[in-house]
Write the structure tokens for this entry.
Amino acid sequence: MRSLFKKSFTLAGKRTSVALEPEFWAALEAMAAGHGLTLSRLVDNIATHRGDRSVASALRICALSKGAQP
């Protein structure tokens, strides 16, 4: 079983933690850098447009899509 790593962010003015596998964090960090964003800004953008999904699910889906617009 893989370990999850938690990172904390402020989303919509509330502090929250998200736990993902390290591979997803690496993909999201690369995506953020590719778009000239901080990881926090990318996560905020994804969370804002996530619909009914949890933040963790939205981040995983975005990481899998690799070139998606944040």
